[in-house]
Design a protein that fits this description.
Order of helices and strands: HHHHHEHEHEEEHH
Oligomer: single chain
Strand order of the largest sheet: 1-2-5-4-3
Shape: globular
Distance between the termini: 33 Å
Radius of gyration: 19 Å
Number of strands: 5
Number of helices: 9
Strand content: 15-25%
């Protein structure tokens, strides 16, 4: 894997003279690139992948880490270079599965987030759907009424607050695998700030209509 990462690095242009700032930038890039490989090949989330990258590179725990935008950019590059023949099919299958669950839970204003929405998902990725509910317990009741088995756990929400996640194992026929589907339960009022874009103007999550359009465009 280090050989692959080196080849990836050598394929990129060298910009200007080597300085302390350049060395710092190179270290940040190396962490981001290594984290990207771990995200794609092992299905890690960005946070754990960055910390694993520090260990693999032999860097101190206090080393400054790249932000998620940098890691995501490297993930896109890695997918294009090494997974172009498989990842688009896997992403489409996951988006179709996500859409089916969003339709089942349409009453709770579902929005798809994470790698499946952003376009970096592979068959190792889980699906993250955010529900915006008038009554937080109603989503659990609906799943019970549908005969769906799930686990409830507390996780950090997109604003840093603690929210309930209803986790399901859903079979994806197209991939012939069970996929983790996590339903993050928010208050209805949280939807107002959920659609703010990132630095590049891209949204962090999309509703059913947006996901359906992605699926239709790729089919």
């Amino acid at each position: 894997m280090r050989v692959m990462a080196l080849a990836w690095r050598l394929a990129r242009p060298v910009r200007g003279a080597v300085t302390i700032a350049t060395m710092s930038s190179d270290t940040t890039w190396e962490i981001a690139a290594t984290a990207a490989r771990l995200v794609v090949e092992e299905g890690l989330e960005f946070g754990p992948a960055k910390h694993r990258a520090l260990k693999e590179l032999g860097l101190p725990a206090r080393q400054a880490l790249p932000d998620n935008d940098q890691v995501e950019s490297e993930v896109f590059d890695y997918l294009q270079l090494f997974c172009a023949d498989t990842q688009p099919f896997e992403l489409l299958a996951l988006r179709r599965l996500a859409l089916s669950w969003m339709e089942r839970l349409a009453a709770f204003r579902p929005h798809l987030g994470g790698a499946v929405w952003r376009g970096t998902a592979t068959r190792l990725s889980d699906i993250y759907i955010q529900l915006f509910c008038d009554d937080s317990k109603q989503a659990e009741i609906t799943l019970l009424d549908q005969g769906v088995r799930f686990e409830v756990r507390a996780v950090k929400g997109f604003r840093g607050e603690t929210v309930d996640a209803l986790s399901i194992h859903a079979h994806c026929a197209e991939l012939n695998e069970d996929i983790g589907v996590h339903l993050m339960v928010y208050d209805h009022d949280d939807l107002r700030g959920a659609l703010l874009p990132d630095k590049q103007g891209r949204t962090w999550r999309g509703d059913m209509a947006a996901v359906r359009q992605l699926v239709d465009n790729a089919s």
